[in-house]
Design a protein that fits this description.
The protein has 253 residues and is of the alpha/beta class. It has 8 helices and 7 strands, in the order E-H-E-H-E-H-E-H-E-H-E-H-H-H-E. The chain has a single domain, classed as NAD(P)-binding Rossmann-like Domain (Rossmann fold, 3-Layer(aba) Sandwich). The chain has a 7-stranded parallel beta sheet with strand order 3-2-1-4-5-6-7, sandwiched between helices. It starts with 9 loop residues before the first strand and ends in a 7-residue tail after the last strand. The mean pLDDT is 95.
Length: 253
């Protein structure tokens, strides 16, 4: 038995038109899952879904702005309409519109970060997990960050939002564990994505990050996709409520 096999499982991945989310969707599709590609732009979603279908896998595109509760419900409903169930939910989409000290942050920016990164996850989990329980179980994966486990002078509230997501995973794991629904979070370090381009495209910052990381490199999206595949599959059947740090060792060095 292949413990990483996801044949006939349905996986919904937010923020999956690029970066970490796209890589997660691709790896889950390769493992046999039927995947729902979702982000704000319809064309970007459809391009990824078409690419996955071109490899003989199953995928649909459902655009969704996760900051809108009605659109979150439409995303969930579309997955149910197409395949009748959701076995894996990956809450990957997030935002960080400002950089700088917390003291300079406006109420509007604070609300945008917390609502997009935390409240949307709260919504999606509550929409999906009861059905998962009725179907005998499932796996929910929340994308946190190493910003959740240490202070930061320029993305402080983003880190607070990611700490909240890790806390949400622990509490949901307690509530839903008896129904065989597992909930975990992943805390990536610096990953080569558009989201973090300002950091890894700067040669000085990149060299500093690489020198501070025991593996002496920044991460690729596939590095996080592998962890997500593990958490979605039977290989992690006895893992719940955990935050798995995938940062090349940065936080321990």
């Amino acid at each position: 038995m292949n413990m990483f096999d996801l044949t006939d499982k349905v996986a919904v991945i937010t923020g999956s038109s690029r970066g970490i989310g796209k890589s997660i969707a691709e790896q889950m599709a390769e493992a046999g899952a039927k995947v729902v590609i979702s982000s704000r732009k319809p064309e970007a979603c459809e391009a990824v879904a078409e690419e996955i279908r071109g490899k003989g896998r199953q995928a649909i595109a459902v655009p969704c702005h996760i900051g809108d509760k009605d659109q979150c419900q439409q995303l969930v409903d579309a997955a149910y309409k197409e395949w009748g169930r959701i076995d894996v939910l990956v809450c990957n989409a997030a935002t960080n519109p400002v950089y700088g000290p917390i003291a300079d942050m406006t109420d509007e920016a604070y609300d945008k970060i917390m609502n997009t990164n935390v409240k949307s996850t709260f919504w999606l989990c509550n929409m999906v997990m009861p059905q998962m329980a009725d179907n005998g179980g499932g796996s929910v994966i929340l994308l946190s960050s190493i910003a959740a486990v240490r202070g930061n002078g320029v993305i402080g509230i983003y880190g607070v939002s990611k700490a909240a997501e890790a806390g949400l995973a622990r509490n949901l794991a307690v509530e839903w564990g008896p129904k065989n629904v597992r909930v975990n979070s992943i805390a990536p370090g610096l990953i080569k994505t558009d989201f973090a381009k300002a950091l890894w495209e700067d040669p000085v910052r990149r060299e500093r990050a690489e020198n501070q990381t025991p593996l002496r490199r920044i991460g690729d999206p596939e590095d996080i996709a592998g962890v997500a595949l593990f958490l979605a599959s039977k290989a992690s059947a006895y893992v719940t409520g955990q935050m798995i740090v995938a940062d090349g060792g940065e936080t321990i060095s």
